[in-house]
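Objective 1.3, modelling of assemblies. Example input:
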Amino acid sequence: MTTAALEARIWRRFTPAQRLARFAVYLAMATAIVVSMQTVEVIPEFLYDAPEQMADLLKRMWPVAFAYYPKGVHEALVETLHIATLGTIMAVAIAFPVGLMAAHNITPSRTLNYIAKLLLVSSRSVNSLVWALLFIAVFGPGALAGTLAIGFRSVGFVGKLVGEAVEEANEGTIEALQAVGAPWLSVLAKGYWPQIQPAFWSVVLFRWDINVRESAVLGLVGAGGIGMALDTAMNLFQWDRVAMVLFAIFAVVIIAEIGVTAIRKRII
Amino acid sequence: MVTVSASADRIAFQPNWWARAGWIALVVYIFYACSLLDFTWARFVVGLDNGARFIGRMLPPNFSRWEILAKGLAESLEIAVLASALGILVSLPIGLLASRNLMPAWATWPARLLIALCRSFHPVIVAIVFVKALGFGALSGIAALTVASIGFIGKLFAEAIEEISLKQVEAVRATGAPFMNVVTYGVLPQVFGRFMGFATYQLDSNLRNSTMVGIVGAGGIGGALFAAFQRFDYDFVCAMLLSIIFLIFLGEVIATQVRAVFLERGKIDEE
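Predicted structure (tokens):
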């Protein structure tokens, strides 16, 4: 090749196929945004007085009704934490067998793998509020429905990550245990468990943190916890109490996140 | 015959007393919390009975009012698309401001505080406040999910920028490029692939939540779903749930495809 031909070559970062694919994605995005903007129903009158309404809301929220905390918020807040914790424990109890069933190196059957994965996906694709509505229809309003909702929603998350951690486990330890004739329960407990332990604890803590946030909302549909206090205060237009509840949720979420981050740093 | 060595009483796996104490504490906690929240076996059995009747009434799903269903789903989809677009647009500068390797401390602190504030409330709770400020309808849903998107993308974008290689940034800086050019040519190309990953994930997550914000009146199919639950209209509920699950599943498939297009190296960022 002559130098002129070499110089005439054009260097591009991506292949034509890649560029075409990217262009298609951009085009689809732009179309989706434009179509949505044209069809979405927005009432402009509501937008005009939004600043006024917002100022009114803040004025009603101030001063925050801190005096209401011991009477109406504390108990609900504790209930929320129990819902989140019990739900996480329940999720782990269900997620372990399902996660093991989804891992192909523990369960050699393909059909069982698929069934387990289907269970995990269906748990994740239903929102915790929908789970709560379903369990309220079955068990009636209250913390029981909330706990089951949190539990069922978390199974998919925990089970998927447990299954992946098991699949990534090092085979050497497992073979050594099998070679000395260890029964499969011992292989699980002494071969797999120590290997997946760090991943497991970090997943559980992370999910608990998410569950604290989610269980604060469940009360809006009647599934117990601090959301009930929020719903009551809102229905009575007691915005200073709403501000108190929001403040309590904010504080708990921040404390939970700081705690979880600190524990994760020590474990991993 | 093999003589047993002196260490015959050696145990391969020492009992871990801390772990056993942990198990006992866990069981005690479960019993304590269950009694506190008034969970009883009797309630559970009554519930199972209810559950059978409930499932009986859900089947077969009733798609006869498909106009309401389609309208709600379309509105949820619109909310998700617009909130994602708006959220991504706003979180770009905020994420950049929050990255500690490019910005001074006086810029990162307020940006990080804003991101933490956006992240700490569930979208449905944010929607309540916006329903009061902006009225019922899709606009409040868009605003609430935009806030959620800023919290999520802002945080991950800032983290991605903090992990970039500074060599390229320095090279661009050495040519005397102004700050905006450093960002465009030194920073953005390094994080773009991952950024598209977050963006599609957020679109997916907004789609899930946009079907829920309707519960507090912020538009989308959630309002119709909640109303049907309260009317004990369970076969319609079942139809709506099936459609929502189908839509979310479709969204997940598309998101995976889009991520594959923008994947340069490394793995897809999972949930």
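Chain B touches chain A through 62 residues (CB under 8 Å).
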